[in-house]
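Morning, I've got a small favour to ask if you have a moment. I've dropped the whole record in just underneath, so have a look.
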Amino acid sequence: MSGEAFLTPTVHEGVPALRAAFSNWRTGEADVHRVAAALREAVPGV
């Protein structure tokens, strides 16, 4: 666990998914890219 984001399970339009919580008033575009990179590293093929 890297601590980049907190993931919880959810369902979107009937499809199981993960919800990533990583935002606050200081969250910027670079943070979104950092979390996306962490997810790609954790789950190859995403």
